[in-house]
Automatic annotation (TrEMBL):
<feature type="modified residue" description="N6-(pyridoxal phosphate)lysine">
    <location>
        <position position="38"/>
    </location>
</feature>
<dbReference type="GO" id="GO:0030170">
    <property type="term" value="F:pyridoxal phosphate binding"/>
</dbReference>
<keyword id="KW-0663">Pyridoxal phosphate</keyword>
<dbReference type="InterPro" id="IPR001608">
    <property type="entry name" value="Ala_racemase_N"/>
</dbReference>
<feature type="domain" description="Alanine racemase N-terminal">
    <location>
        <begin position="40"/>
        <end position="224"/>
    </location>
</feature>
<dbReference type="InterPro" id="IPR029066">
    <property type="entry name" value="PLP-binding_barrel"/>
</dbReference>
<dbReference type="Pfam" id="PF01168">
    <property type="entry name" value="Ala_racemase_N"/>
</dbReference>
<dbReference type="InterPro" id="IPR011078">
    <property type="entry name" value="PyrdxlP_homeostasis"/>
</dbReference>
<comment type="function">
    <text>Pyridoxal 5'-phosphate (PLP)-binding protein, which is involved in PLP homeostasis.</text>
</comment>
<comment type="similarity">
    <text>Belongs to the pyridoxal phosphate-binding protein YggS/PROSC family.</text>
</comment>
<protein>
    <recommendedName>
        <fullName>Pyridoxal phosphate homeostasis protein</fullName>
    </recommendedName>
</protein>
Length: 227
């Protein structure tokens, strides 16, 4: 894709985000648009940066690490990690990420903990499906995991993250997520982030309080290869 096309897709998506925010009576300025760059080369991240993008997300540890290391000159670029984190890779993810959206078990909290380090922003990932093989904690377990994170000084709980199930109306799924987010705020009052909404459902996510959108293909175009 040419960089003019990239620029116009980005502007189009940002326009739709602003429209959805206004329809929901929200200030578009309180919403962070994260561009998901998985499967795309580091060069695309560099182009996005030149267009003003400062928040990008990756979901595979090795790919994330490689791109991160190639782009350390992009000083204020913030990397969000949104994929499953293996405990043995947790420290490496922690070193490169500005935020980890996919904390879903006590063991990972322990693996991410680096005593005396500056706090890392993390989110509890919620599994909104009935499939236990999906990433994320079950809804009812979120407050307890939030408590574990709250007791870990090297982690700062910012909120919750989820992907809408394929077989449920995203608006209903995000409404449930808003309820879970409120329960998590009962544990950590300033955990105000709701990371929800992708290319196909970000308007519904905005209507239900999403503060961080994770948008890939609507901005980048199709991913080159998903193997
Ligand atoms: C790939 C991915 C996205 C972006 O999906 P698109 O449909 O391309 O916008 C968002 N969140 C997570 C966790 C992802 O893995």
């Amino acid at each position: 894709m040419s960089s003019a096309a990239l620029e116009s897709r980005l502007a189009q998506v940002d326009g739709s985000i602003a429209d959805a925010a206004r329809s929901a009576g929200r200030d578009p300025g309180e919403i962070t648009r994260i561009v998901v760059t998985k499967f795309h080369p580091a060069a695309l991240v560099r182009e996005l940066f030149a267009l003003g993008v400062r928040d990008v997300a990756e979901n595979r540890q090795q790919e994330f690490q490689a791109k991160h290391d190639e782009l350390t000159d992009l000083g204020d670029l913030r990397w969000h990690f949104v994929g499953q984190v293996q405990s043995k890779k947790a420290r490496a993810v922690r070193r490169a990420a500005g935020a980890v959206h996919s904390v879903d078990r006590d063991k990972l909290v322990a693996a991410l903990d680096v005593p005396d380090a500056d706090p890392l922003d993390v989110l509890v990932q919620i599994n909104l499906t009935d499939d236990p093989n999906r990433g994320g904690v079950r809804e009812g377990d979120a407050p307890r995991l939030a408590e574990t994170i709250a007791r870990t000084p090297s982690l700062r709980l910012r909120g919750v993250m989820a992907v809408a199930p394929l077989d449920e109306d995203p608006a209903r799924a995000f409404e449930r997520l808003a309820g879970i987010a409120a329960r998590v705020r009962g544990v950590v009052p300033d955990a105000s982030w709701i990371s929800a909404g992708m290319s196909g459902d970000f308007a519904e996510a905005i209507a239900h309080g999403a503060t961080h959108l994770r948008i890939g293909t609507a901005i980048t175009g199709p991913r080159p290869s998903q193997v």
